[in-house]
Amino acid sequence: MNVQLEHTAEKKGAIFESTLRLVMKQGFHGSPMSQIAQDAGVATGTIYHYFSSKDELIIELFKHCKHRIGNAMFKTAEQSFPYPERFVAIWINLVNFYIEYPEVLSFMEQFFSSPYAEAVHERNCGVQMQNEMSNFLQLGIDEEHIKPLDINILSAAFIGTVTATAKRHTNGHYSFDESSMNEMVTIIWDGIKKESFQTEQHV
Asked: Which helix (DSSP H) or strand (DSSP E) does residue 172 occupy?
């Protein structure tokens, strides 16, 4: 990377991190561009050099977070794992990511509860991570590892338990260690795996 591109990446990274911190504390409306710039250590004019508006900043930050989340979930070294083991690994990877970066979880939750969610849907932004998750779940159905349920239902069960677990840990309600995380994801896996579905059908 040349010096100019590296400098740009550093400035944008600082702006993104500042935005995440402020949005977590103050929400979207309580985080003006001037305060984001000040927190990031850049001039207000600089932030507008990279982002034409606050809306553009929020959309670009969403895409940036999606990329980070996808990389955290789907690790190359785990691609050869048997499907059940990979399911567990992906779930735990995402929980650990949200525990380490609660500001990203807060941002994503606020984002999907805002008008920005409709904007990214219209622009088709951030679908790579969603497609990767959907494809992984569909693979589980196709290979008869998991129940043939609607992908939206499976995704909701997966993501919902991830966020609930991470938030309980971060808020100090319960400290999830490796053992308790495995117990938690086993509950999820046992609920969706194909064997339990077949058993229930024969009861």
From this structure: none
**Closest to 68 (Cα-Cα) out of 126, 9, 8:** 126
Amino acid at 43: A
Residues 60 and 47: beta-carbon distance below 8 Å: no
pTM above 0.90, yes or no: no
pLDDT in tens, 46-75: 999 999 999 999 999 999 999 999 999 999
Tens digits of residue pLDDT in 123-158: 665 454 567 899 999 999 999 999 999 999 999 999
Q: Are 184 and 165 spatial neighbours (Cβ–Cβ below 8 Å)?
A: yes
Contact call for residues 83 and 135 (beta carbons, < 8 A): no
Phi-psi region of 172 (alpha: psi -120 to 50; beta: other; left: phi over 0): left
Write down the residue that tokens 């989340």 correspond to.
Answer: 69
